User: Fold Secreted protein from Streptomyces pristinaespiralis.
Amino acid sequence: MIATAALTAALGMTVTQASATSLVTWTVTPGGAFTAVATNPTLTVPAATLDCASSNASGSLLSGSGNPGTGIGTITSLTFEDCSVIGIPFDVTSRNFPWGLNVSGVSAVPNAVDGSITGVDASISGSGCTADFAGSVTGHYKNDTKQLVINGGSLVASNADCLGLINDGDEALYEAVYAVSGNHTIAPD
Assistant:
């Protein structure tokens, strides 16, 4: 959940980022189940912004040391409450779980790791407007505050029927800060 970091610079190594990432394993403490809550998440396309009052997620993380960054966890549920576009109510439906949680490197943000959520698949529907979004989101997880910050990635609209506000191929930016339960810490081995 969590943009790709320049792992080489962060660890002071002189190898390519791809090869450095493949060499790094991760310790997750304690691991296992988590829940997460975000207030006021947004999904922005070129012509409109979907605002929601809140979002709730749940899933699980691997535990212990020696874990690969790819597939370090999964999201098994994601819901949204009180969503609207310019005051018009919208429903958001997330589907095709589980989604993958991945760590890509040590973040430039202090006490954090960068990563992504892959397999994202959701739809929105409101008065005269429906659209699907799929792809991945990126951001970072802050070990000290236990927050998952999502602020990048590539979500692409399809099956859009939305009076021209959302069109097939539009890229959407999802932004949210999730408070994560479970007191989890993710660090390189």
Remarks:
- The CA atoms of residues 66 and 174 lie 31 Å apart.
